[in-house]
Design a protein that fits this description.
Largest sheet: none
Oligomer: single chain
Shape: globular
Number of strands: 0
CATH topology: MetI-like fold
Distance between the termini: 26 Å
CATH architecture: Orthogonal Bundle
Order of helices and strands: HHHHHHHHHHH
Number of domains: 1
Length: about 260
């Protein structure tokens, strides 16, 4: 820590918990508590039960969870390829070109996600590329939304990358493709895995654009949560939300382990 005195450390921890618990932890704890409740008329829930998780892990909810996982994995993989490749290409451009690329890839996150959903809906609702009513229109929208974060993460890593490694390999006769795949990409692997994890988490929680695009047979879990709570089943919706958080956390922990191993390499 940057604070070295004992009193300063206690002060820093106190401020952290005072800010962290009400703003971040408490809302999540309320959702977890509600997922086990049958009634909540006072300060604390009553009638604890685990039946809500039976509904949250079966039937339509289980299908929605699978849909979200497939969508998030596919979108993050596509975003990693597109955003990472664009970042590598932008690194070789002049200042004006890099600024243009930065603006292009930041545009989807600079506007509300519902605008991106509308743009995708208009673009792919008529031939020659007719994707409206298919799962791919949802995956494309998620890919567009998360590619910006992949691009920025890889771009930042490239600026910190020591060019001496690639220059040394090139001076020994290595071709550009060999330098890219054997020297530069291994050095960028920690940033690539971090970008993939962030893209996955963002895709798992995306709702606004998805609401405009999803077909009846491809309903991601955030839409299922919204539909469940909209019907008044708040406790079941809370259980589904906990399942969503747990699934996202497990994948992020796995990605973090991969990133740690890549860093040691």
């Amino acid at each position: 820590m940057l604070v070295h005195s004992k009193k300063g450390k206690w002060t820093a921890w106190t401020v952290f918990f005072v800010l962290f618990l009400p703003v971040f932890a408490l809302p999540l704890l309320v959702v977890v508590a509600a997922s086990f409740a049958t009634n909540w008329s006072g300060a604390l829930p009553s009638g604890l039960t685990g039946s809500h998780y039976q509904a949250a892990t079966s039937g339509d909810s289980l299908t929605a969870l699978t849909t979200s996982l497939v969508t998030a994995v596919t979108a993050s993989a596509l975003a990693l390829v597109a955003g990472g490749w664009a970042a590598l290409a932008a690194a070789g451009l002049r200042e004006r070109g890099r600024r243009a690329m930065d603006a292009l890839f930041m545009l989807p996150v600079a506007v509300p996600s519902v605008v991106v959903g509308l743009a995708v809906l208009v673009a792919f609702s008529k031939p020659p590329v007719l994707l409206n009513g298919t799962r791919w229109i949802v995956i494309i929208a998620h890919t567009i939304l998360v590619t910006a974060f992949t691009y920025q993460s890889v771009s930042a890593a490239i600026t910190r990358l020591d060019p001496a490694y690639g220059q040394a390999a090139a001076s020994l006769g290595a071709r550009p493709a060999y330098v890219l795949f054997k020297v530069e990409l291994p050095l960028l692997l920690p940033s690539l895995t971090a970008a993939a994890g962030l893209s996955f988490a963002l895709s798992m929680g995306e709702l606004s654009a998805t609401m405009m695009l999803y077909p009846p047979d491809w309903m991601p879990l955030p839409v299922q949560i919204y539909a469940t709570t909209d019907r008044g089943a708040l406790f079941t919706g809370s259980a589904i939300a906990v399942v969503l958080m747990a699934a996202s956390l497990l994948v992020l922990l796995a990605v973090d382990r991969l990133r740690t191993r890549a860093s040691y390499r």
